[in-house]
Amino acid sequence: MLEGMSREKKIELYLALALAFTFICYLIGVFILYEMTGIESEVMRDRYWKDVVPLFEGKIPIMEYPPFALIFMAIPGLFTYWTHSAFIYNIGFVVEIYIFTIIGLELFRLIAERYGVSQIKVMLLYSVFIVLMLPFVADRYDIIPAILCLGAFYLFITKHYIWTFVLLALGALTKVYPAFLMLPFMMLFLIKRDWKSMFQGAAVFIITAAAVILPFYLIEPESVIHFITYNSDRPLEVGSVVATLIYPFSMIGMIDVSILPWTDPGSYGSDDLIGPIPDAIAGIMSYVMAAFTLAAVLFYGFIRNKRGRNDEALFLMVSGSLMVVMALIVFGKVFSSQYLLWAMPLFLLAIMMCPDHKFSNKLAIVLLAIFIFTEINCGYIYAYLNGGTNINDLCMILMLLRNLVVVYAMYMVGRKMWEVYRDGFSGKDLENCFDDYC
Q1: Is 237 strand, coil or helix?
Q2: What single-letter DSSP state applies at residue 435?
Q3: What is the DSSP letter of 339?
Q4: Element (H, E) at 273
Q5: What backbone phi and psi angles, to 5 degrees, belong to 198?
Q6: For residues 213 and 220, what is the distance between their CA atoms, to the nearest angstrom?
Q7: Which pLDDT does position 429 carry in this prediction?
Q8: Do the beta carbons of residue 329 and residue 285 sit within 8 Å?
Q9: How many Å apart are CA 219 and CA 179, to the nearest integer?
Q10: Which of 109, 120, 72 is nearest to 94 (CA)?
Q11: How far is it, in rounded angstroms, from Cα 69 to Cα 72?
Q12: Are the C-beta atoms of 7 and 123 separated by less than 8 Å?
């Protein structure tokens, strides 16, 4: 069976099997933890009991997530709900996540093949990132919209523009952030004065979104309204960049803060930093995030308008999209660790598309440090200390250090975009590129 396969496809198969093994090991760990301590995974505690059970009892659950997310939560239930077992549902959910992970692996191989980048190196790096973030990959659903966005990028570079915006719309109705990726795509059309493609893409996005939202709204209006208004009054989550920057001032007695544990009804399901100063800052962070997101789009548009080579345009497109996502993460009121999965495919694309190997290698190392730091922090803060009011000064400093590295990664990408604007790339240009919107 393997004789007719290329070396790259054989490696892809081996990596898929290795990832399957790691997912199985994860499930064994979840089972042992549940049997020995009664502690449920988030999939069991939240997705199954709060969302899937009510759905299969004929009620549309009111979630903090967009309504299409419920589809991905329900699919494992179609095959497992008859068992009435939260753990069996967890198995089905992890199988679904694994399928999306392998779709991502194949998409990265296809993109690398298209542009003459080492397929093996790209697939290996992707697999390493997945393994390092496995608890967040397997116990959350954030990898699904991330792969939908990756699929949208692949469809765009292969000139399937209609399906690009269909996938972006589905991604936005699974987790809101892909909606903001519309902005870099629209900026490309604006630069080229391609009004037809701009309005066509926007129309496809709106029609797809409406087709998904309307049935949910007609059945249960609150399922649509709730996710839109959910974060408006939310306090600062302790892991957010701004919360970790504020906290050291409380350590020297300059401000008064306290931790609102995730078990509190007013916590929005996360450990939050509260007090006069954090609450005041939380009230303006949505505007700050919007301003920096718009600034990222304009920065990308300014630089992209000055560079014409295919390789420069492709790197700038990926990096501009990445800066938008990073603006949402860095300047948001909430920075849950799984949010890194939103940016991971775009970081890997930026590493792939930059001919400056020194930059690519350094960015890869910084990402590895971020993922390892994240796992250590979560292991100590939440697995060992159990979070909540047990979060102490050391925990906040550890999260601050991780966040500073995240900000540095964003800075690296922004600085490289500026260097491309100033000096451009040298050497041979890309040949296999989409002509107008690279």
Answers
A1: strand
A2: T
A3: G
A4: strand 272-274
A5: -65, -50
A6: 10
A7: 54
A8: no
A9: 24
A10: 72
A11: 5
A12: no
In this structure, what token pair is assigned to residue 2?
């393997």
Q: Are 278 and 236 in contact (CB under 8 A)?
A: yes
DSSP state of 39: P
Contact predicate 260/270, CB 8 Å: no
Beta bridge partners of 237: 272
96 token code pair: 């679904």
Structure tokens at 342: 């939103």
In the block, residue with structure tokens 């839109």: 228
β-strands 258-260, 272-274: how paired? Answer: antiparallel
Instruction: Give the pLDDT band (50/70/90) at residue 325.
Output: very high
- What are the respective helix, strand and coil percentages of the chain, to the nearest 5? 75, 0, 25
pTM of the model: 0.93
Measure the CA–CA gap between 367 and 410, rounded to whole angstroms: 11
DSSP one-letter string for 77-89 = HHHHGGGT-HHHH
Please tell me the predicted confidence (pLDDT) of residue 382: 87
Spatial distance between the Cα atoms of 340 and 18, rounded to a whole number of angstroms: 22
Q: Could you give phi then psi for residue 236, rounded to 5 degrees?
A: -75, 125
The span from the first CA to the last CA of the chain, in angstroms, equals 37
The whole-angstrom separation of Cα 158 and Cα 248 is 48
Distance CA 131, CA 127 (A): 6
Q: What is the DSSP-derived secondary structure letter of residue 90? A: H
Strand order in the sheet with 258-260: 236-237, 272-274, 258-260
DSSP states of 41-72 as a string? PHIIIIIIIIIIHHHHTT-----SS-TTHHHH
366 φ, ψ (degrees, to nearest 5): -60, -40
Question: CA-to-CA distance for 126 and 109, rounded, in angstroms?
Answer: 10
Question: Which amino acid makes up residue 221?
Answer: P
Residues forming a β-bridge with 273: 236, 259
Q: Is the dihedral of CA 206, 207, 209, 213 positive or negative?
A: positive
- The whole-angstrom distance between residue 44's C-alpha and the CA centroid of its chain comes to 21
| The residue to which tokens 């939310």 are assigned | 234
Paired strand residues for 260? 272
Residue owning tokens 């694309």: 349
Per-residue model confidence as pLDDT tens digits over 246-293? 999 999 999 999 999 988 877 788 899 999 999 999 999 999 999 999
Note the residue count of the chain.
438
Cα(26)–Cα(249) distance, integer angstroms: 39
